[in-house]
Amino acid sequence: MRIVGGRWRGTKLPVPDINGLRPTSDRVRETLFNWLQPVLPGSRVLDLFAGSGALGLESVSRGAAQAVLVERDPSQAAGLRAAVARLQAGDQVQVVQDDAVRWLGGQGIAPPFDVVFLDPPFAAGLWQPALQALLPRLAADGWLYLESPPDQVPEPPAGWTLHRQLRTAQAHAALYRGPGQGRADTLATANPAP
What we know:
Blueprint: H1 26-36, E1 44-48, H2 54-61, E2 66-71, H3 74-86, E3 93-97, H4 100-105, E4 113-118, H5 127-134, E5 138-148, E6 161-167, E7 172-177
Parallel strand pairs: 1-2, 1-4, 2-3, 4-5
Antiparallel strand pairs: 5-7, 6-7
């Protein structure tokens, strides 16, 4: 797996054989980051269930100011820390080894995230518990990416609107926008929802 764009374009990311680890395909990542490119510069990003870390690292590669990667598996979290060190990105990327839902619940007062990637192991069915814990951590006018099996589309938070979606044989990918009015919808004219 490689980072597909930005300053680290072409950088290989190791993908270990871990039960439930299913990295987002290059095709879906390329499309997703085309959708998000106008809002990434300067944003604060959260990659829950980080796995390979491709979504969070790609965000920083393309201009996000900060990314937090949350990964439960200790060996994979160590691998993510090694990748961050290799990229010399320790000042921008934080790797947290913890259960994603538990970590969200223990954050207290912290700046909200502008972009969140929610792509849990499909068999675990964690979309709704994660969304419930995540909502207080999301900027009101932020962006939320949900990836799920093609025949199982999670319900987005109340008030969040579908911006774009993509379905492949392996996954359904959807990008939602929060109901807040803090900034203009910079993606609306370029990428209207189908």
